[in-house]
Design brief:
The protein has 9 helices and 12 strands. By secondary structure, it is of the alpha/beta class. The protein has 2 domains: 164 residues, HUPs (Rossmann fold, 3-Layer(aba) Sandwich), CATH 3.40.50; 118 residues, Beta Barrel (Elongation Factor Tu (Ef-tu), domain 3). The strands form 2 sheets. The chain has a 6-stranded parallel β-sheet, with helices on both faces. It has a 6-stranded antiparallel beta barrel with strand order 7-8-11-10-9-12. α7 runs antiparallel to α8. This is Riboflavin biosynthesis protein. Catalyzes the phosphorylation of riboflavin to FMN followed by the adenylation of FMN to FAD. Belongs to the ribF family. Pathway: Cofactor biosynthesis; FMN biosynthesis; FMN from riboflavin (ATP route): step 1/1; Cofactor biosynthesis; FAD biosynthesis; FAD from FMN: step 1/1.
Length: 308
């Protein structure tokens, strides 16, 4: 899949496509149905199937404190869209300047001039342009005038499809990982690069691989029994996702202790799959109290994972 980062990297060679615009957060089964139909339409028209996403997502710019937790990072999204057979991903830098352009400019300059769209798939609630004044009806009218078709993602989804990113976040909040996996078409996973931490875990026999949560918020917080994928191998472990209140932590991160694993993982990308929630994150009266709880958490994680 070709990745186009930023509108300045679009060239005349990119004109002519079948396009869908959306968040595609999670690239779940509902999204996959849309993408399958998009590919079929692209094949009929002998044009590339193209996805456009905004980065960061609009809510993360305008209302960061209430923006929904992401199910997938951009890295994950690229990998998943590639697996769906999408030929090109256009990542538009979303900021105040981009949001302030008129809807007419968005249609004429981007969709028509730069992308040469021939078939467009968007949600019927899609809004764009200054003060979100552009809507589905405006796109339909522009399509008739400029020679491209516009359809709603609803017509491209599975029949009676109730899958949504919101429903998946709710399933994760309820620790229903089986339901979340069913809607996603795969287990929910945290993917990231291992960074250096404060190394306090190793002083009590529980060294951790630390992953920074580069998201406005995370769909999961607390202590979990997990499986960890490292270089194609899968291990069992216990993970804390949160801000480590006992240690006065401020940034959101994931810390995972991998059972029976001693190799260094710094700088490597790992995948952490939550299997069961053990408890919420809490602040303990002392580091000694935290140490005792970590031992109990590890024992419970091993018991839960052994039963799965």
């Amino acid at each position: 899949m070709e990745l186009v980062r930023g509108l300045h990297n679009l060239s005349p060679d990119h004109a002519g496509c079948v396009l869908t615009i959306g968040k595609f957060d999670g690239v779940h089964k509902g999204h996959q149905a849309v993408l399958l139909n998009l590919r079929e339409k692209a094949k009929q028209l002998k044009l590339p199937a193209v996805v456009m996403v905004f980065e960061p997502q609009p809510e993360e710019v305008f209302t960061p404190q209430s923006a929904p937790a992401r199910l997938t990072t951009l890295r994950d999204k690229i990998e998943l869209l590639t697996a769906q057979g999408i030929e090109r991903l256009v990542v538009v830098r979303f900021n105040a300047a981009f949001a302030s352009q008129s809807p007419e400019t968005f249609i004429h300059d981007l969709l028509v001039d730069k992308l040469g769209v021939k078939f467009l798939v968007v949600g019927d609630d899609f809004r764009f342009g200054k003060q979100r004044t552009g809507d589905f009806s405006m796109l339909e009218q522009a399509g008739k005038a400029q020679g491209f078709d516009v359809v709603s993602t609803a017509s491209f989804r599975l029949a009676d499809c109730r899958i949504s990113s919101t429903a998946i976040r709710e399933a994760l909040h309820n620790s229903d990982f089986e339901l979340a996996a069913d809607m996603l078409g795969r287990p929910f996973v945290f993917t990231g690069k291992v960074i250096h931490g404060e190394k306090k875990g190793r002083t009590i026999g529980f060294p951790t691989a630390n992953m920074r949560m580069n998201r406005c918020s995370t769909p999961l917080k607390g202590v979990f029994a997990v499986r960890v994928q490292v270089n194609g191998d899968t291990y069992k472990g216990v993970a804390n996702i949160g801000q480590r209140p006992t240690l006065n932590g401020e940034r959101m991160q994931l810390e995972v202790h991998i059972f029976n694993f001693n190799a260094s993982l710094y700088g490597q990308v790992i995948r952490v799959i939550p299997e069961a929630k053990i408890r919420p994150e809490k602040k303990f009266a002392s580091f000694d109290a935290l140490k005792k709880q970590i031992v109990l958490d590890a024992c419970e994680a091993q018991t839960l994972l052994a039963s799965m």
